[in-house]
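Lecture notes, unit on binding sites. The following record was shown on slide 14. It pairs a sequence with S-adenosylmethionine.
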Amino acid sequence: MAENLKQYWSTRYQEAQTGWDIGYPSTPIKTYINQLEDKNSHILIPGAGNAYEAEYLYQQGFSNVHILDISEIPLKEFKKRNPDFPEENLHNADFFEFKGEFDLIIEQTFFCSFVPTPENRSTYAKQMASLLKEGGKLVGLWFNFPLTGEMKKRPFGGDKKEYRSYLSPYFNLKSFEPCYNSIPPRAGKELFGIFTKR
Ligand SMILES: C[S@@+](CC[C@H](N)C(=O)[O-])C[C@H]1O[C@@H](n2cnc3c(N)ncnc32)[C@H](O)[C@@H]1O
């Protein structure tokens, strides 16, 4: 695991510099979850942080929810809030090194969190695909504001065309549109996408 990265994110949690943390399951993801039918689906949330969306899934009876984060701090917090959640489904790991096979992966403020080199962005797309079963889905939110070239200031942006260029070698696009039900501070700044592994 990239120790410096682990340290960076753990320090953000220790110092409570967690502006991304909204404290509840976001409306777009919650709305998407509400129409899912298969409660046995294997679902992964990478870069999950405090993972309120995973908590919501678990409360709704989804039995194979996995969360992954490079920092163990939010995973411990999650376990405190959800003591019955299976320990083996909490993964303290680097997304880029993780192995598994899921039906659905949920993206929220993870893509925008790592250094936006073309190499990192295309490796993300490849790794997402490798973590999905054939026909599995990558679903979630990507910020829709310009990438400035500043390599330190998170969240890192992008646009539909750029995201598609990374994802299309591995995914068929089902939909990718401006998000209509973003939480108020993110209104007009997000795309909601559904991609199916080729
Ligand atoms: C901006 S935060 C978003 C957290 C969460 N998705 C949310 O919406 O609140 C990014 C998260 O990704 C985690 N992270 C960053 N790089 C990672 C990596 N390579 N592997 C796993 N987790 C990573 C960080 O520790 C942090 O919790």
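Take-home: The chain has one domain: 2-14+43-197.
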